[in-house]
Amino acid sequence: MIQVKILGTKSPQRYAVRRAVVAAWNELICEHIGLELNTVEVKDLSEIQRYTQVFIYPSLVINEQLVCVGRFPKKCEILGWLKQALLTEA
């Protein structure tokens, strides 16, 4: 199972990142059938501070590792991070 946390205080920004995560996930699941993804949106400032001091723009955490800070990642980037998480999980 891969754990993904989308950090951000603004709902539209979290939604945009979630769409990119889902698009990357849909591509990855074709190769790894049965793999599970747990996605959580974190909007609480104290919880976000555990990972980064950036609040204005979204950030992304995969398997408790901060992979993207203060910007909107592209689907291809997320796909790479998810694949890397699979390698470290195995």
CATH class: Alpha Beta
Number of helices: 3
CATH fold name: Glutaredoxin
Order of helices and strands: EHEHEEH
Task: Write up what this structure looks like.
The protein is an alpha+beta fold and 90 residues long. It has helices at 11-29, 45-48, 75-89; strands at 2-7, 37-42, 59-62, 65-68. It is globular, with a radius of gyration of 12 Å.
Give the SSE map.
Elements: E1 2-7, H1 11-29, E2 37-42, H2 45-48, E3 59-62, E4 65-68, H3 75-89
Helix pairs in contact: 1-3
Please give a handful of descriptors for the protein shown.
single chain; 90 residues; alpha+beta; Glutaredoxin; 4-stranded mixed β-sheet; 3 helices; 4 strands
Short description:
The chain is of the alpha+beta class and 90 residues long.
